[in-house]
Amino acid sequence: MKIKGKIALIRYGGLFRGLKVKNAQDFGAIAAVIFIDPIDDGEITTANGYAAYPDGPARNPSSVQKGSTLFLSTSPGDPTTPGYPSHEGAPRADSSNVLPQIPSLPLSYEAAEPLLQALDGHGVSGEAVNRTGWVGGLDARYFTGPAPGAKLTLDVKSRDAIAPIHNVIGWINGTNADETIVIGNHRDTWMIGGNADPNSGSAVLVEFTRAINKLRATGWQPKRNIVLASWDAEEWGLIGSVEWVEEHTNWLTETAVAYLNVDVAVAGPHQGLSATPELHGVALDTFKKVIHPNFGAYNISLYDSWYDISGGVIGILGSGSDFTGFLHRGVGSLDISSYGGPKDPIWHYHSNYDTYHWMATWGDPGFHVHAAQGQFLALLAYHLASDDILPIDVQNYAVELRAYYDDLVEFLAEENADVDLSELDTAIELFKRSADTVKALERQAVETGDEELKTVVNHRYRDFQRGFVSQGGLPSREFYRHVVTAPGLDTGYAAVTFPGITEGVQYAVGGDLSVAREWVKRTAKGIVVAARILAT
Ligand SMILES: [Zn+2]
Question: Is the pTM of this model over 0.90?
Answer without folding.
Answer: yes
